[in-house]
Every structure is written in C-alpha cells, then in structure tokens.
C-alpha cells in the first residue's frame, strides 16, 4: 500500500564534503533514523529499570512491569516506538505535600531521551488519582496549589519533557463523583474554561516553547463545545488529545475517520493519546465507565490475538492516512500489569510478542521505513531520496527529510 503523500518526501539531496565541495560520483549510504510522526507508547514499565531499583519497588499507577520483565521488554519497545508517555498522576507523584517524585521521574525521562525518544508527561491536572491532601484546602488554596504544581514540574523537567497533557478529561471534571477530589471542586466552583486557563497559563508561562495538549476520552460534541469555548476565550492549545480505549471493540475506519474529521476542523494537530485494542473477550457494551469492569481473569486468546493484529493495523493505517494526526500512543506494551487487567498489550505476560506487535513493527520499521540504501551521487553531488518524513543519515551525517524538495548535507569529518 503506497505511503500517503502527506507523510512522504521526494527530495533531491545535495551532498557536500567536509570542505563544502559537491561529493561527485561517489557511493553514499542513506539510512532512516526516526519518523517525524510520533509512534508512542507508555513508558511506565521502565521507571524502576531506569532507576536501577529492585523488584520490590512500588509500581506506578495504571501499570508497571517488574524490573526483570522491563529488561526483557526494552528492546521490543525501543525497536518500534519513538515517543514515551510518563505518569505524573498527582496522587502518586506527590503523595506527601512538598515531596514530589521528581528525581525518580527525571531519571526515567532522561533514560528515554538518551535513547532518542521524545518524552511526554501525563497529566498535570486531573480529578482522578488526585493528591488526597487537596481535600483539606479551600477552593482558592486548591487553585494556588495546582498552579504551583504545574509551574514546578514544567520547570523541573524542561529540556527533557517539553510535551504535556496539561489537563485531562475536563468535560466530566466538574461532575465527576467516583471519588472525592480537589479538582472536581475547583472545576465546579470556577467552571471548566477558567480551570483550563489556570492550567495552561501556568504551563505556558513556565515553558513557552512546550507543546501543550488538552486531552479527553469524550468524543461527543461536548468535547467540541469545550474546545470551542477554550479557543474563543483566547487560551492557546498546541494539540488536541483524543483517547481511543477500544476495550469494547474496534471503532472501525468509518467511525475513526468521522471523529478525526470533526476534531480536525479546529486546525490543530491531533494526538491519539491513549489507544488500546484487546486480544481477548471484549468488555460488555453496557459498561459506561471502563473502570467498572472488574473480572478475576481476562486472558488473551488465540482468536483474539488474530483480531487485535488486524484491527491494530487498520487503525494505524487510518491514523497515518489522516493529515491532521501527528501522534499515536498505544497504552501499554505488555499484558503484565496492564490497565484494568485487560489483554490489551502488544506483548503477552510471558514476554512473547503477539501478532499485533509484529503487525505494528512491520508497518513502522518495514513498510514505512527506509533501510540502509547505497546511492551514487551525480557529477554535482546530488542524489534523489524518497521516504517517510523524518530524520535520516547520509554516511553517518544527520539530515531532516521534509516536504522541501531540496536538501543540502555537509558531511562531517
């Protein structure tokens, strides 16, 4: 299947030697290093590994494999994904006020960054897994604490984490009643848009160059209305986060495209921030809140794995095929410690890849990837290069393959 034109470049690269002269009539090796598109996954499983902790270390919220498992998973993860989401759930990150888990999380973020992975923090403000000590504060004090938390963390991680899900699931935030929390009270008292403004202002003022997302699971017109209100209020958001947990079944191409088109009308990049497809029994359709589905065992099955692989490939082809989509994050590589115990991972609990992992790797590192290719320059040092937008090397020197038709690369050394 041909690569969508908006994802590829057909460029002419002029190669200069170290002295700035055209490298004429010479064989050179062109190789892709990373995609411009962000193929993401959560990095929760690797926090303890990055910090060289023992298996007794407490896992992060919503998943986290043992250090032994993470060690075995690392190569599988890094072979496919170029973007990692790390957990900043306030109730876990700062269980005791004034004692955030900064050092541990910064070590994990640097572990990914050192391996060429773009790191995102999730989330800076959310009503779930919220800091319990906020309940003892007044609404004004909650607002001040939220503002201070965002400014502190965005500053502490600047340069390592420059992408954030700033505020999560605001559509439901003021009326959320599953558990007492300070953010619901704040959003109820002040309203959704002022709460969004508080969060985005704190993040933007602290790191003006950061990529800041509004993120939600609600794909209804309620989320569209919220975005309209936020933009009309003059609040700048850099990308729209869309969750796509498909525990109850694959959306299908038609529904997915309809959702993408509806949110693309705002003219902002779309990030599919949380995607899952299960390889076992589907969650019953009558369940309204996915968290309410509690079962003793939820195994992956052979037939479910075949279905998951087919649906995952179709889903990623749909996302890559839509010009507004800039990133897609799968929510978990392994079934070991997976969210809700669902068999939604791409790797079984025993560490063996499922067909879905193979299908995604085939797309990312085969069909949408330029393997090392020997090309011969012309008499003027030019070679044609076609491939997925992203970072490449020619004889080891990095260059960006963009929509520009002319690229000049000066070889090092």
From TrEMBL:
Top-rank taxon, per record: Bacteria
SMART domains, A to Z: Glyco_10
EC number: 3.2.1.8
UniProt cross-references to SUPFAM superfamilies, sorted A to Z: (Trans)glycosidases (SSF51445)
Ranges of residues in domain GH10: 67-363
Keywords: Carbohydrate metabolism, Glycosidase, Hydrolase, Polysaccharide degradation, Signal, Xylan degradation
Group of enzyme by EC: hydrolase
Reactions performed catalytically: Endohydrolysis of (1->4)-beta-D-xylosidic linkages in xylans
Similarity field: Belongs to the glycosyl hydrolase 10 (cellulase F) family.
Name of the protein in its database record: Beta-xylanase
